[in-house]
Design goal:
The chain is an alpha+beta fold and 896 residues long. The protein has 5 domains: 9-46, no CATH class; 58-158 and 238-277 and 317-485, Glycosidases (TIM Barrel), CATH 3.20.20.80; 493-636 and 768-787, Class I glutamine amidotransferase (GATase) domain (Rossmann fold, 3-Layer(aba) Sandwich); 640-759, Jelly Rolls (Sandwich), CATH 2.60.120.260; 800-890, Immunoglobulin-like (Sandwich), CATH 2.60.40. The chain has an 8-stranded parallel beta sheet with strand order 15-13-7-6-5-18-17-16. Strands 29, 30, 31, 32, 33, 34, 35 and 36 form an 8-stranded antiparallel beta sheet that branches. Strand 35 (747-755) and strand 36 form a beta hairpin. It is globular and about 80 Å long. The two termini are 27 Å apart. Residues 1-45 have low confidence and may be disordered.
Length: 896
């Protein structure tokens, strides 16, 4: 992609400076060709040091500016923009029309006249603007939701809105002759499945004139008719590029038609807000699905449609990966790519974020929280108030940027968090930037401060924030100065993003409901694993998407190399979080890495199915070669998981045969907690014994998963010490679901599953650990339930010299980037106590401390250990809580 030169003040030509070839991201646009590099900036006096002390306005944050529920005037626009810059230090805005009371009418000529006033004022103030593409949110309706309720897009293009996939099923017994009318909608498939053998017959071609007639064979059959219908949701069909193009013409293009001269200078980007696939009951579909699927994959998807709802036997995992994976492909190449392509043609960049990023299973939400950003210049996330821990997913978003070689990562931050303290504001920013975010968009400034819907109101008018916003923007500007560039990310550890397992376990109309992702995938531990690495172990990492592992990574000696043009990374350790299903192509490359001397850690469970058809046996053979005997041992060892856990009281302690240990849900979780046992296959049982520690439970359900659905075996209002007996059931998983409790959090000492007098689980839950090596130095370790201690110990044995190492008990958050030959580390203390100690950095450098709080620069206290590739430099750091520091180094060392 190419964007015009001249998007940022001091990066412009013609100042008599020595130029250096470089590529740098600034003001939401690429600047390519001859651009100032760090060294030449220092040589000519306009150096980064002086700008670090007094950052230019271009690096300041640019908040969302709600034009909220009121009549906006020319004088109000001008006055607020002047105050935002002069009193708060803001560098620009994204204007967000909002609420039924907003005037003038959205997309009217008067609206655009006032928008032009804002653009001209921004240009005169040296500020920049971003086009927010909606009236209200989510993006896609032009005002129908959180706007004035007018369905502008749906009214103009009634056939181009969101579609839904419906399944109509009938049970039929044969032999018989059976006929039925086909429900209305675009027919996608008709498939009959024998409910015992799971044999499937594609009946689609037998439909004639809207009616199906079929001579039913012997057996009990479920006949499933799949039709695509218009849902009624007012948003554009996110999966259809033609429909999205019409939305872009209705919104984005209207700005360009009127304000072309501002594009690439004052207007630097677009912002889309909260598109998602949980709409249409989580069954978003599009009429061209079958045709496009067959063109890409070379086979007909129709026989596999039942897998979207049901277990179809051994092909279930692969079928779901193909179908759900292709739906995500349509989503990624639909809404975000069409907008990005338009933005690129008009000299700007596109950003935006999904809704509900915090759902562990994204298959019916974003589809795939990495893949959905493949074609978007600036991946984004939303840190919002309420029980939505976006911070646990920052690394997924930033890893998407690293995977597809994108230098910026956006976060819309602070919305609906209330009148938060400055400590929270700074703490959130530090966590974001150490996890890869480098473009923070504050939420928000409100045109009418008396009608704020989602606090905080981050402006000069709020007495709690007025005195601190300029200082905050100076702090953020210094972070942006050193991190908003094309510098590459450094990490020694890759973590395979387990989308294959998430897709394999997903099905439509799941019990959690579409907003929460529909289906919980019990083995999914990738989020917890990522948090362990960053917050407890002190090791940065990159999630690798399966497509990127296949297409952009190669084995080089004992390393796995991400061969991007700019963001190239060299991994010394590959971690597979719990996978039941995996791409055979991925596992084959990981095995090659191991055979060449690479280090591999697998957590939770071992892969046993392929995401591609016909490779299950290959997966099992490769797993057994790397982890001999482990798979069979695990099959005999039931596995327990929980909804949450108090540190030190993990779910496995409820199945260890010891009444003195227990599982305890996390502090403050109250009800809606669960404890689940994976029996390792279909088992018959009729009794569950449970020992509750504190008699807190006031309602519960005991459920069995029969391969398709959760079914109640027993319910009650008290638990205590109890044996639950019921008619024999057959299932692969058992779940104790705690609905409500009296106080605090639920605590279970023991949970046992029995068939008659035979215990199927007792004392079997001790976490399994196993280690295997090869002649080339390869090491494969299995950690069934990794802890910070076991993970740290394992990693320490695998690599002699890591990029960053901390003294015991002193873990800081950090990120490392390399830009123009300089190593830039940002360290932050998010703990409650002061941290003072040595931080060890790989290689020899001359290190300086750059303080983003003050702009001061000083020489670091440092000591060098070792020579050559094994050399390290120890740097002394002292940080109070919520303090951060850059460690900046020059000089050569071993390639990171």
């Amino acid at each position: 992609m190419a964007y015009p030169l001249g998007l940022a003040g001091y990066w412009q030509r013609g100042r008599g400076m020595r130029w250096k070839s470089w590529k740098r991201w600034t003001r939401w646009g690429w600047v390519t060709g001859v651009v100032l590099g760090w060294g030449s900036l220092q040589a000519e006096g306009l150096d980064v040091r002086s700008q670090f002390l007094e950052p230019p306005l271009e690096y300041a944050t640019r908040p969302l500016w709600f034009w909220n529920n009121t009549a906006v005037t020319e004088s109000g626009i001008v006055a607020q923009m002047e105050q935002a810059r002069d009193l708060c230090g803001y560098g620009g805005f994204g204007i967000l029309p909002f609420g039924e009371g907003f005037r003038p009418e959205y997309l009217s000529e008067e609206y655009f006249r006032l928008y032009g006033v804002a653009l001209e004022k921004a240009r005169s103030l040296g500020m920049v603007m971003c086009i927010y593409d909606e009236y209200g949110f989510p993006s896609g309706s032009a005002g129908a939701i959180n706007g004035d309720g007018v369905r502008r897009f749906a009214d103009r293009h009634p056939g181009q809105t969101i579609k839904r996939l419906d399944m109509h099923a009938q049970e039929v017994s044969g032999p018989a002759v059976w006929s039925s009318d086909i429900p209305s909608g675009e027919l996608m498939a008709v498939v009959a499945m024998e409910t015992g053998t799971l044999q499937r017959i594609d009946l689609t071609e037998r439909v004639a004139s809207g009616r199906l007639e079929w001579r039913v064979p012997v057996g009990n059959w479920r006949v499933m008719v799949f039709v695509c219908v218009v849902d009624g949701d007012p948003n554009v069909d996110y999966l259809d590029p033609v429909a999205v193009g019409l939305f872009v013409e209705m919104t984005h293009q209207q700005y360009y038609d009127r304000f072309k001269e501002y594009f690439g200078s004052t207007i630097t980007g677009t912002f889309h807000d909260e598109p998602t696939m949980y709409r249409a009951q989580g069954r978003i579909w599009t009429g061209s699905f079958n045709r496009k699927f067959e063109a890409k994959h070379g086979f007909d998807p129709r026989p596999y449609y039942p897998a979207l709802w049901h277990d179809i036997g051994p092909e279930t995992a692969a079928a779901r990966n193909y179908l759900f994976g292709f739906r995500t492909e349509l989503y990624a190449t639909g809404f975000p790519k069409v907008i990005q392509d338009w933005a690129e043609r008009h000299g700007i960049a596109a950003t935006g974020h999904q809704d509900q990023e915090e759902v562990v299973n994204p298959v019916s939400v974003s589809g795939d929280l990495m893949k959905c950003f493949q074609h978007q210049a600036i991946p984004g996330v939303d840190k919002i108030g309420g029980p939505r821990p976006a911070e646990r997913f920052y690394k997924v978003i930033s890893s998407a940027a690293y995977n597809w070689d994108k230098p910026l990562v956006m976060s819309e931050t602070y919305g609906a968090m209330g009148d938060i303290a400055w400590e929270t504001i700074y703490g959130v920013a530090m966590e974001q930037y150490t996890k890869g975010v480098n473009l923070l968009i504050p939420h928000a400034v409100w045109y009418d401060p008396d009608a704020v819907t989602f606090k905080p109101e981050l402006s000069w008018r709020h007495e709690g924030y007025a005195g601190g916003l300029r200082g905050f923007n100076r702090y953020m500007s210094r972070l942006n100065l050193l991190l908003q560039n094309s510098g590459r990310h450094v990490a020694d550890i890759a973590v395979l993003y387990p989308i294959a397992t998430l897709q394999a376990g997903h099905f439509l109309d799941g019990p959690l409901g579409p907003y929460q992702g529909g289906v919980e995938i019990p083995e999914a531990d990738y989020v917890e694993l990522g948090e362990l690495l960053t917050t407890r172990v002190g090791r940065d990492f990159t999630y690798l998407h399966p497509e990127v592992l296949d297409g952009a990574c190669r084995v080089e000696g004992e390393c796995l190399y991400l061969a991007n043009a700019n963001n190239h990374e060299r991994y010394r350790v590959m971690i597979l979080p719990a996978h039941k299903a995996i791409r055979w192509s991925n596992l084959s490359k990981i095995q090659t890495f191991f055979d060449a001397g690479g280090k591999v850690i697998v957590t939770g469970c071992l892969p046993q199915q392929s995401a591609e058809f016909g490779h299950d046996s290959d997966v099992i053979r490769a797993v057994d070669a790397m982890f001999p005997g482990v798979r069979s041992s695990l099959a005999r060892n039931p596995r327990v998981t929980g909804s949450s856990a108090w540190p030190g009281y993990e779910p496995g302690l409820a199945m260890d045969g010891d009444l003195t240990t227990r599982w305890n849900a996390a502090d403050g979780t109250s009800g809606d907690q669960w404890l689940e046992i994976d029996l390792g296959g279909m088992r018959i049982f009729d009794t569950v014994s449970v020992t509750e520690v504190f008699d807190r439970v006031t309602s519960f359900s005991l459920q069995v998963h029969d391969g398709a659905d959760w079914v109640d075996c027993a319910t009650g209002t008290e638990l205590g010490v109890r044996t639950l007996r019921f008619e024999p059931v057959r299932g692969e998983r058992v779940r104790l679901l705690i609905h409500t409790i009296k106080a605090d959090s639920v605590s279970i000492a023991e949970l046992s599953v029995l068939h008659g007098d035979r215990c199927l689980t007792g004392g079997a839950s001790r976490a399994m650990e196993a280690e295997f090596g090869n002649a080339r130095g390869g090491l494969a370790v299995f950690l069934e339930r990794p802890t910070a201690a076991s993970l740290r110990e394992c990693l320490d044995r695998m690599v002699d010299v890591y990029d960053v190492a901390f003294e015991p008990g002193q873990t800081l958050r950090y990120i490392h980037k390399v830009w123009d030959g300089r190593d830039i580390y940002l360290f932050a203390n998010l703990e409650e106590s002061r941290i003072a100690g040595w931080v060890t950095l790989r290689g020899r450098r001359q290190w300086e401390l750059w303080d983003p709080h003050t702009g001061g620069i000083s020489e670091a206290k440092q000591a060098v250990d070792g020579e050559g590739a094994g050399s390290e430099t120890r740097v002394w750091l002292e940080l109070d809580p919520l303090e951060s520091i850059f460690v900046v180094g020059s000089g050569r060392g071993p390639e990171a």
